[in-house]
């Protein structure tokens, strides 16, 4: 059982690790946060110009509720900042066929309507009024959820790490986890790549897509997958302006989703598809020709007025995919003292305002309504969250 002031070592200062560090420090624990850095680490999943925030999770009531609470949390976080990092531009769901209750789009619409959200159903013309870049006739049905939008993810993690430091978390930037300190009594700390040891009453491994490599007994239930991200600077006439909603285009079938222009004028489009299984390294980050060709085909068919030749950036970013698309936040049943907080499966960032609390509750053994979904579990058949294109 944790005491009010345990010494806790956290491996990984991405969103999961940094949010846990801030919350556990707020609850009185002494925290050492370890990450090779530089922080926020450019290769991390949490580092990017934007991440989508939605409560639109098909028929899945738990993630819908988690999304609702997260959006409230983002508004509260905005109040604490010198400028808003969460931009509630709305979430626009596009469907190339009439929505059905079985599909992600129709199921989300029904679930949100039943829960009292002001969702607005739109036909093709209505969708194009909100997103003039859409190809005429390509999208025939959909809806706008005014509750939702995007967040400046890299900046959020930067500020979380600053808050951790400011509240007394010892941030060991440059240190790299090499292995656990283990005895019959359980886990009592970590070894670092420079030959050092950091002892603690508990160890939390929150190393994102690197986690299954660091804890190989997890390799059967979670694995890294790479996903293409494109940054565009379309010409001003394309009207993909700052205020436009975040959109998802037949996302469970195509994987494609995109963002409005950010303050720097960049439009991000990415793919929430199966991705490619590979270990995340510093070098395998270039988007391959096949992904770029698929992107061009999508743009030409679905967002006809966006000029693809103005790709100004892109990279491969890694998910830590679990077999069922649910996060993995629990104590290791075979290793007392070890907690794993990973498995973001390409959809964890939006829940930042809640994640630190969920991890801290698991560490402290406090009941949490969401924790059972993220508990240690046997491997089953491959699935994913409702918006995820799996094949
Ligand atoms: C392309 C892409 C798009 C996404 N879009 C969205 C979205 O729109 N909305 C959304 O909600 N979510 C989205 N996600 C998911 C979200 O980004 C992740 O769920 C979340 O950021 C995962 O955070 P993390 O802390 O687990 O991992 P990371 O941010 O990757 O952090 C892991 C940290 O562990 C550190 N680490 C690695 N090895 C070691 C070691 N040996 N020792 C110490 N530290 C180590 C790394 O340096 C890194 O800082 C997306 C993810 C990707 C890849």
- CATH H-tier superfamily of the domain at 88-147 and 223-322: D-Amino Acid Oxidase, subunit A, domain 2
Kindly report how far apart the N and C termini lie: 42 Å
Counted beta strands: 21
DSSP strand (E) fraction? 25-35%
Bound ligands, each once: flavin-adenine dinucleotide
Q: Could you estimate the helical fraction of the residues in percent?
A: 25-40%
Average of the residue pLDDT scores: 94
CATH class of the domain at 88-147 and 223-322: Alpha Beta
| Element-by-element helix/strand order | EHEEHEEHEHEEHEEEEEHEEHEEEHEEEH
- Give me the number of helical elements: 9
Q: What CATH architecture of the domain at 88-147 and 223-322 do you see?
A: 2-Layer Sandwich
Radius of gyration: 21 Å
Offer a few descriptive terms.
391 residues; alpha+beta; six-stranded mixed β-sheet; globular; binds flavin-adenine dinucleotide
Structure description:
The chain has a domain at 88-147 and 223-322: D-Amino Acid Oxidase, subunit A, domain 2 (D-Amino Acid Oxidase, Chain A, domain 2), CATH 3.30.9.10. The chain has nine helices and 21 strands. Helix 1 (15-26) packs parallel to helix 5 and helix 1 packs across helix 9. A hairpin with a 4-residue loop joins strand 11 and strand 12. It is an alpha+beta fold and 391 residues long. The longest helix has 20 residues, at 61-80. Bound molecules: flavin-adenine dinucleotide. Flavin-adenine dinucleotide binds next to helix 1, strand 2, strand 3, strand 14 and strand 19.
